[in-house]
Amino acid sequence: MAIHLSTSFFNKSSISSPPVFHHRRAPPLTVFAATSAAPPPSSSPPTIQIVGGKNASWYKDGVMNSSNRVDCLEDGYDWADLENDLYHWTKSLRPVQWYPGHIAKTEKELKEQLKLMDVVIEVRDGRIPMSTSHPQMDSWLGNRKRILVLNREDMISTADRNAWADYYGRQGIKVIFSNGKLGMGTMKLGRLAKSVAAEVNIKRRARGLLPRPVRAGIVGYPNVGKSSLINRLLKRRMCPAAPRPGVTRSLKWVRFGNDLELLDSPGIIPMRMSDQTAAIKLAICDDIGEKSYDVTDVAAVLVQMLSRLPAANNNVLWNRYKIETDGRCGKTFVHKLAIELFNADEHQAAFRILSDFRKGRLGLRALERPVQPRVM
Questions:
Q1: What are 307-334's pLDDT values in tens digits?
Q2: Is 216 helix (H, G, I), strand (E, B) or coil?
């Protein structure tokens, strides 16, 4: 039975002492660029090799254009405040939990196959990179080499992309941005996977063994575009792919040329999601089964988020639906839209809002940005 949002969301002014969240997740692993002078010692954390992405600079020849002005305005936005708001909005909702039986089975098989990998390609949703980071991935991979890919670059703005490129760039690395539907970034990904694991065959030759194809596993949350990336790499449909979670249900090896083997794997998520702000964002972005959440609740939270984001504000909702929002109660907005367009059917109205966001009709924007440290 669906549990709906209360008539009004929590307002920060009505909360006496809200907790301060600088970030939900632990700091990222120490990351070394491929051009580092020397690799880390064997006892160091796993090395992530990441390349690609555009220059994170938003200026050219010292001139700021109109889009740069928007970027700078977004720079001043405190994304930690949005995370705090999300925490309060989700407290009264039914917990989002989704763990189909096939995931438990294939997760065990995947961990066994990972032992055979030369390199692991971790794919995340570019709209929510942190929320699509599996909390156990680091322990599963150990010291194995890893490539990080932010897919769906066509769904985020240049400012979003620059923010994440800058976030990784501050650690001396760049990130691969890809579009699995159109194939952008896939050939670069294939070349990188081969180059990262090239030392495998160097060691084999040193032992008098013949070279073999590099083994690369593609892992990540459901519906982040793993199979689409493989199909684009192969230039033919070898793996089932559809815009919904749970399509791939078994492990499948495919050959890419003569020197690279790819393992397509089902989406993996934690057995229990304790971080409900991340779970709500997974639902908004359709990276989790829709039976796990109430569509009306999730759409109302999305309205709340769009009312907070500086690049969206209330204008994006007004421009699309010609309905005003007060920025406090997303459920009221869903109800108004239901009356206007769907004969008071709130489920249909909520589904339209989510569908419009997922198709980019509410603008190209990420729901997460790197949280900057607070200055005390």
A1: 888 776 668 899 999 998 876 789 999 9
A2: strand
